[in-house]
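About this split. The held-out portion is used to measure sequence recovery: a designer receives only the structure tokens and must propose an amino acid at every position. Recovery is the fraction of positions where the proposal matches the reference. Here is one held-out target exactly as it appears in the evaluation file.
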């Protein structure tokens, strides 16, 4: 398979994903029925999912996606008393835990593959995720239109580190799907740039990953049109993992001292006022 045909297929897939994000952001009926129908395809997963990791990844995304759907509906002007509890803060902690779970799943798989540097990078990512206490919410307005968006104030640097970490993971775990997986990592970056809102990155990541896993769980369309097996190079993988670890350590140190300075300022101010 030529690289040109792969790149063309990637461009078409990325265009589809971008449009998909637009619909899942704005159309409540669309994202509601997508999350429901996605779970109803589970009989096909027995044919197309062959490992514990594939099952774990698919289940740990598509089931929480349904939960996210009803959290968004509850916060989108819906006055249903049954859904009222979903307008509280605790659903954000569930979604935060799901993000950690998915990173840990991949990190464990990285470890079993001998991709140790990248595995450690994943753990550092988990540690540095901003807590839902102040940084996660369902937003209703983007300044012009009213949408129940999943908003997470993740630093741009964290998002970019996630992309390079996850891309290296896929490169090691299943190189044949690397090209298609690269699409679902790039599109949320493009989407948040177009929207000029980094706080939409997580929602973009959730929905692109969900539709990707749904397609893979139902039928393998990616191997015939985007098989990137020929791109594998073990030396490159090792160097990529080492670079990722170095970048993640730098970010972790920056995060640690920033957090420490913030705590110092808060405590010092409290002491100054006699609290």
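Reference sequence for scoring:
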């Amino acid at each position: 398979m030529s690289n040109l045909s792969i790149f063309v297929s990637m461009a078409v897939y990325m265009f589809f994903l971008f449009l998909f994000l637009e619909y899942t952001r704005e159309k409540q009926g669309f994202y509601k029925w997508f999350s429901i129908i996605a779970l109803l395809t589970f009989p096909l997963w027995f044919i197309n999912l062959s490992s514990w990791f594939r099952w774990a990844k698919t289940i740990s995304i598509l089931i929480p996606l349904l939960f996210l759907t009803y959290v968004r509906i509850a916060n989108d002007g819906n006055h249903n008393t049954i859904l009222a509890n979903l307008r509280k803060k605790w659903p954000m902690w569930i979604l935060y835990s799901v993000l950690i779970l998915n990173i840990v799943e991949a990190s464990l798989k990285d470890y079993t593959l001998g991709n140790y540097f990248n595995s450690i990078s994943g753990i550092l990512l988990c540690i540095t995720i901003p807590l839902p206490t102040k940084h996660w919410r369902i937003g209703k307005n983007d300044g012009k239109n009213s949408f129940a968006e999943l908003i997470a104030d993740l630093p741009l640097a964290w998002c970019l580190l996630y992309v390079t970490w996850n891309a290296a993971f896929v490169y090691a775990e299943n190189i044949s799907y690397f090209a298609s997986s690269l699409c679902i990592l790039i599109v949320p970056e493009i989407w948040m740039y177009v929207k000029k809102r980094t706080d939409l990155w997580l929602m973009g990541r959730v929905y692109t990953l969900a539709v990707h896993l749904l397609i893979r769980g139902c039928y393998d369309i990616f191997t015939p049109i985007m098989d990137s097996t020929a791109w594998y190079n073990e030396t490159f993988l090792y160097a990529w993992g080492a670079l990722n670890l170095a970048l993640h350590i730098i970010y972790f140190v920056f995060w640690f001292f920033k957090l420490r300075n913030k705590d110092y300022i808060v405590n010092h101010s409290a002491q100054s006022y006699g609290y």
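Annotator remark: The radius of gyration is 20 Å.
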